[in-house]
Amino acid sequence: MRWITCILVVLIMLLPFVAIRSEDLGTYFYWVVVTTAFLIYTAIDTKRWENE
Amino acid sequence: MNNFIILVAFYAVLGTAIAIYARGARTHEEYFVGGRKISGIVSALTYASTTYSAFMMVGLVGLSYATGVGALGFELMYLIGTLFLLSYYAPKVWELGRKKGFISPAELIGAKYGELTAKISAIVALVALIPYTSIQLIGVALILEKNAELSFSTGILIAAILIALWAFIGGLRGVAWTDAIQGLFMLLAAFLAITWVSLKVDLSAISKLDGLLYVPNKIWTPKFFAALTVPWFFFALTNPQVFQRLFIPRDKRALRKMIIYFGLFGLIYTVLVTLLGLELRIMTIENNFPFVTDRDKVTPNLLAIMPSWLSLLVALSILAAAITTANSIILTLSSMVSRDIVKGSVLVGRLTVILLTAFVAIFAIQRVSYIVELAVLSSTILLCYLPLIIGIFHFNFGGKATGVSTIVIGFTAAIVLFYLKIDPFGIPVSVFVFFLTFFTFFLVGFVERKTTPKS
Q1: pLDDT, position B349
Q2: Model confidence at A44, in pLDDT bands (50, 70, 90)?
Q3: What residue of A is the nearest CA neighbor of B263?
Q4: What are the pLDDT digits (tens) for B166-186?
Q5: Whether residue B98 has pLDDT greater than 90
Q6: Does residue B186 contact residue B321 with C-beta atoms inside 8 Å?
Q7: Are B240 and B336 in contact (CB under 8 A)?
Q8: Which member of A31, B95, B260, B307 has the greatest number of CB atoms within 10 A?
Q9: Binary contact (A2, B84; C-beta < 8 A)
Q10: Would you say the ipTM is above 0.85?
Q11: Chain A contacts of B210, Cβ < 8 Å?
């Protein structure tokens, strides 16, 4: 399941290669937002370790 | 006296005081993994400082300047890979480390694939990481040469003394604490640099960057992106200096903090550094910054136009980034030598720190042309560990033959293909080595299982 999540996130990260071609910081912000979202997901996903 | 020498002297005294405060390790466990009692915040900062070398403020600024936003994508892809691998494998590695008393990364490999595999792993790590560490020393020497007017060899000597001294005295605890302070300083210097540059840039002119704002462009083709990303994506499992840090947090709560705060550090640092590169490119277009053709010269050009106090702070942060990466690697390599190759006491570990640093310094001082090439190659060479580490947690086959053949074939292929400059079937070397090591692992593992009598 986690590997599937990872593959999904990698595909989302690769999206600018086929779908975004803006001449502003669109691609830049897109990558920052996806990484931030994944960091938040990781923080929530690993919260259970605190009780182990 | 030159201001930069005063700054470096203060830095050296502070670091040495911290290392002395952290001294007292009597066992391998205390010396190499801090007795597995490091807090989450310090673990995160040492992980970040070990990972982020002088490449960030020099190489990545230049890469963003020359090639555009693709540099951010590549670096954040690394961060995504690391976050995933750590959130999945770190607790398993941490638990195994405690249960079996693993200290060197090769011991984990040796437990499944045999002692010979562990020995070969340690030797491969030495070959892959000594040139990479030498590059860090060369970076420090060049900064000292430019800012403190010292000769190149004196710069190498100072860097070598700082690297060996802190690791020799304080072991992992000394390295981790000095890393933590330097990590915060690296972040602060990057923040000050981007603030200073941002005040001079009209961001509304961003569209003038044109092809640098999207991918693919002339440089960031899918093939180039894959070639860089594949070895870095798996960095957390393949590079022993960061892998060993999975053994150090004091509990799972600290392990979690290490991962999350490292991720936060990495994200902020990457954004600051890549934005710096892009803003400098806008300045070039608006004729406020010279056009720099050699991308490694972008940061030195920036330092030349900054106020001297800021230039000195940024230069010191680059020096700190190089030292933190180098001493962590030296300490990890010394653990692999003294645990997997010669099997000696803590004293042997300490002496190995000195010997390895001396060797790295000699390598650096010669400045032979192939050092840079070998340093670039290091992450591809280390890919040969990947199937073995993943195999520990997912596959119940594989022994000595699997371990030895996977490492030897992966290592040999990386070296040979890189030097012959061949992309087999048009596939980048790093991607080819990635598939080859997994193919070898499964093939030999399958044969070994069929031919080994069940006990």
Answers
A1: 94
A2: very high
A3: A39
A4: 999 999 999 999 999 999 999
A5: yes
A6: yes
A7: yes
A8: A31
A9: yes
A10: yes
A11: 23
A28 within 8 A of B74, measured Cβ to Cβ? no
Q: What pLDDT is recorded for position B369?
A: 66
In this prediction, residue B276 has a pLDDT band, given cuts at 50, 70 and 90, of: very high
Domain ranges of chain A: 2-46
Q: Name which of B69, B77, B87 is nearest A45 (Cβ-Cβ).
A: B87
Tracing tokens 């193919």 back to the chain, one arrives at: B439
Please list the residues that pair with B249 across neighbouring strands. Answer: B38
Nearest to B252 among A17, A25, A49 (CB): A49
* Dihedral angle computed from the Cα positions of residues B32, B324, B408 and B339, in that order, rounded to the nearest 10 degrees: -10
Distance CA B413, CA B284 (A): 41
* Strand-pair partners of B38: B249
pLDDT band at B243 (very low <50, low <70, confident <90, very high): very high
| Spatial separation of the C-alpha atoms in residues B340 and B352, rounded to whole Å | 13
Measured CA to CA, the distance from residue B96 to residue B100 in angstroms comes to 6
Burial annotation B222-244 (CB, 10 A radius, 16+ → b, else e): eebbbbbbbbbbbbbbbbbbbbb
User: What mean pLDDT, rounded, does chain B reach?
Assistant: 94
Contact B99, B93 (CB under 8 A): no
Tens digits of per-residue pLDDT, B412-438?
A: 999 999 889 889 999 999 999 999 999
Q: What is the pLDDT of residue B296?
A: 86
B300 preceded by cis ω (within 30°)?
no
Q: Assign residue B304 a region (left: φ > 0; alpha: ψ between -120 and 50; beta: otherwise).
A: alpha
The amino acid that residue A5 corresponds to is T
The reply to whether CATH 3.40.50.150 applies to domain B3-367 is no
Is pLDDT above 80 for B455?
no
Q: Supply angle C-alpha B93, B184, B232, rounded to 5.
A: 45
B225 in contact with A, Cβ within 8 Å: yes
Partners of A26 on chain B (C-beta within 8 Å) are 213-214
Whether the pLDDT of residue B187 is over 90: the answer is yes
Structure tokens at B392: 């520990």
- Tokens found for residue B428: 């980048």
Contact B215 A22 (CB under 8 A): no
Burial of B390 (0-12, 13-18, 19+ CB in 10 A): middle
* CB atoms inside a 10 Å sphere around CB B316: 21
A37 touches chain B (CB under 8 A): no
| Closest by CA position to B273, among listed B79, B132, B12 | B79
Closest chain B residue to A37 measured between Cα atoms? B80
pLDDT classification of A20: cutoffs 50, 70, 90: confident
